[in-house]
Amino acid sequence: MILYETDSEQFQTAFENKTLKNAFPKNTFVEALLLSKNKAFLNYILLAKKLEYGNVEYTKWESWDQVDSNYKNDDLVDTFDFEKKIRSTKDSFLKQRYAFLALRYYFYAQQKQNVIELYNTYFASESNTILKPWALYYNALCIDNKPLQNYLLSKVFNTCEEKSFAVLRHYNWKLTAETLALAQNDEERSVILSIESLRNPAPDLKAIKEIYELSPNSLFLSFLIGREVNKLEDWIFTPQYTNDGTPSVVFSSTDWYENYATAKEENFNKDILYLRELEYYLISIREQTSGEQKDYITTAIAQLCFIDDQIDEGKKYTDLISDKANASIQMQKNIQLALVSLKQDDLKNENVQNQLYKYFDSVENLVETDHGLFKNLYSLYRIASDDFHKKGDIVVAGLLSMKSDIKNEGEYSAYNNPYFFSYIGYFDRNASVKDMDLLIALQEKSNKTPFEKYICSGTIAPNVNYYKDLKGTIAFRNNNLELAYETFASMPQDFWEKNYEYKNYLNENPFTPKILQNDKERKFDYRFNKTDFIAKLIQLKKQNTASDNLQLAHAYFNVSYLGNSWMMTAYDWSSGGSYTDYVYGDNTENEKKYQNGNYYNLKMAKMYYEKALKMSKNSNEKAMASLMIFECNYYNHYAELITAEEEAKNPFKAGKELVNFYSIYKTTPTFKKYNCPLLSSFIN
């Protein structure tokens, strides 16, 4: 705690105020340091703590936010004689540690020759000290000979895990041959090749083969094999299980953005061939390995089989993994057994589901002690969600998809602070009315199975009315007004005032076409109630007069993408790709089907305008219907992006309704209000 977790300033201040015991009560290390016989060790710790400030001059950074805490550190370096201290220290343990402090200080002071001399004097011949690889790291960076620097860094890499990332950052990748020439044996050559491979994002089976030939028991071999499997998971699974996602690493030879479908197919074919090459090689060396390495390679083979949909073969290798394998390999084994079950078993069977729960739970338990494994759960739940979806179980698929996103290290902020749409987003894209009934039943079920409890934990909506609102919305999209009314009527009638964004987007009169209002005419104080709105639509349909059909037409215009009440039909609106499209996938194709094409193409609005035009005896109503039929035709024509060439081949034509508007109905109040040069230009 004192060495690695205590601020330097806190320790120094406590020492200067003679309050070390009080500042660190019951700390046996501090108690030992305060013994008179250990004064030399206390002095060393004080100097080490001061040196933590490195080359930040005159400042203790812990106190930057405190005006009165700008301590002077003049005595830190200028007045301290490192060489004298090292010579006068008789304890060999302290002598070497003072030498390391000096070496590190000279490194940051860019006094390279001093670093090299201290290393050669106090560390070069030592082997049994944790300080040697650290000292060698600083020494290597002070050597101008780049191949030699690489070689020394490789020795640090092989003996000091704490400096592995630092080595990778400083290693020169253009000097492979020169660095290999300095290696003294095959083990050293395998380490150099391992460093090279660790920074290669491309397929690298060639390096794995070379490393295995040089050092079959290399410490890095399993890691590199696992990394190669991870690459294939990224290249194959990312496009397969995400919403038009591209792999984390892409190469300039592939243009994912020009033609995604083509890039996906071409890369899949190429990646599967490479996967099989890697799989066959691992099978060829498996019998020559033993112990933990054999279990790891067996696990890798099984995973490659699953990626390639070789389920039976994957199961065969999963069964070969030893029951005595370490916890990490056992976790992977449980993941693979879950994958077998997802592909082969009856996912509606309660016993199968509860066995899946046990597999999932075993992985969760290990993740609790190693947060780096969250990605394993993200991928596992994403695959499980996809398999349940394929079997038609949208409820379980949706809850597992949410589990997956929750495990994705908080990438989707909605899951850090769940709110209305995060509970229904997947179901908005995928569920039917029947699915929503099943989801509502699960939410209200008191005696859930272990599997059901597990998938509902952290994912099920806290308020069943979230699901009822979506059910009613789906019914409305399907033109089932009676079911929509029944569902909305079963909810608290103030729901739309207290939840989501309804009061911000459902706040205008839905029976006044938005397209005919200017900004000054629009009023945002309408109290919109979904139940009342549906009830009125049902009433208007029953009455079926010209005026009723005109109101119905206005209403359906306004619940479209272009209207003021679009949130009756959809939960988000965007002129381009939205955040919800990023999370749940592009919803455009679904939206095109809402209300038989009304959401984008105004099909139902136009139908009711045509009905009103035909039934009405009132010239003003006919004028309004004619004008709005023109508007429906116009926006239907441009509902899809049209190129200049397409427009030239199939230009928009106003139609007889606008001609009649400017001739038969030119004396009506509607004509006088909405006539304008832009409108008239369509018939001139």
List the helices and strands and how they pair.
Blueprint lengths: L1 H4 L2 H9 L3 H4 L4 H6 L5 H13 L30 H7 L3 H17 L3 H11 L8 H11 L4 H14 L4 H7 L5 H7 L3 H13 L6 H10 L6 H21 L18 H27 L4 H17 L3 H9 L7 H18 L5 H18 L6 H17 L3 H13 L13 H11 L2 H12 L5 H7 L7 H14 L3 H9 L5 H4 L3 H4 L24 H14 L2 H13 L20 H6 L3 H6 L4 H4 L1 H13 L3 H19 L6 H6 L6 H6 L7 H6 L2 H4 L4
Helix pairs in contact: 5-7, 6-7, 7-8, 7-9, 8-9, 9-10, 10-11, 10-12, 10-13, 13-14, 14-15, 15-16, 15-17, 16-17, 17-18, 17-19, 18-19, 19-20, 19-21, 20-25, 21-22, 22-23, 23-26, 24-26, 26-27, 27-30, 30-31, 31-35, 31-36, 35-36
What does this structure look like?
This protein has 684 residues and is an all-alpha fold. The protein has helices spanning 2-5, 8-16, 20-23, 28-33, 39-51, 82-88, 92-108, 112-122, 131-141, 146-159, 164-170, 176-182, 186-198, 205-214, 221-241, 260-286, 291-307, 311-319, 327-344, 350-367, 374-390, 394-406, 420-430, 433-444, 450-456, 464-477, 481-489, 495-498, 502-505, 530-543, 546-558, 579-584, 588-593, 598-601, 603-615, 619-637, 644-649, 656-661, 669-674, 677-680. Helix 10 (146-159) packs across helix 13 (186-198). It is elongated and about 115 Å long. 33% of the residues are buried. Mean pLDDT is 88; it is low at 66-75 and 410-415.
